[in-house]
Amino acid sequence: MDDPADKPAVDPAPDVLFVCVARSSPIGRAQDSINELAQHLPIPGRVTQCSFCWSPAYWPCGPFDTAVYQLENAGLRPADFVPGGLHQRLWPSSPAARAPRPTETS
Ligand SMILES: [Zn+2]
User: Fold this and answer.
1) How far, in Å, from the CA of 62 to the mean position of ligand 1?
2) If you measure from the C-alpha of residue 85 to the centroid of ligand 1, how many angstroms do you get, rounded to a whole number?
3) Residue 43: helix, strand or coil by DSSP?
4) What is the torsional sign of CA 77, 78, 79, 82?
5) Maximum CA extent, the chain
6) Contact 90, 97 (CB under 8 A)
7) Centre of ligand 1 from the C-alpha of residue 44, in Å
8) Is 100 exposed, middle or buried, given 0-12, 13-18 or 19+ CB atoms closer than 10 A?
9) I want to staple 67 with a disulfide (CB 3.0 to 4.6 A). Which of 1, 34, 36, 105 is the partner?
10) pLDDT for the residue 106
């Protein structure tokens, strides 16, 4: 039983990571919403279950939707903070997730 082959493989890459940004930048000011969004991503392989709430049977949960709304109001694209594999589920047939930021078009 001490054979390393008996132990399950562990993926060393974390599901989330930390980055440094200026506190006064748009992302820095939206840190609470970004953290909330990341906290309420679904369980890997089970896109219908929030990894934090557990009580709702459906993802995206209310706190995730609230974070998306707050990021949009802050002028950020929520899709930039969501794994690409979830975009189709969240924004089906919507190019909005890949649309340029308002500041890029003006
Ligand atoms: Zn949740």
Assistant:
1) 7
2) 18
3) strand
4) positive
5) 64
6) yes
7) 14
8) exposed
9) 36
10) 44
Does residue 76 or residue 104 have the better pLDDT? 76
Q: What is the whole-number distance in angstroms between the Cα of residue 76 and the centre of ligand 1? A: 20
For 40-90, the pLDDT digits (tens) are 999 888 888 998 997 766 899 999 999 999 999 999 999 999 999 899 989
Task: List residues bridging with 43 in a β-sheet.
Answer: 46
Nearest to 60 by CA among 33, 39, 75, 32: 39
Q: How far is the CA of 95 from the centre of ligand 1 (A)?
A: 25
With residue 47 as reference, give the H or E element that holds it: strand 46-50
Per-residue pLDDT at 5? 56
- CA gap 106, 42 in Å, rounded: 35
C-alpha of residue 40 to centroid of ligand 1, in Å = 4
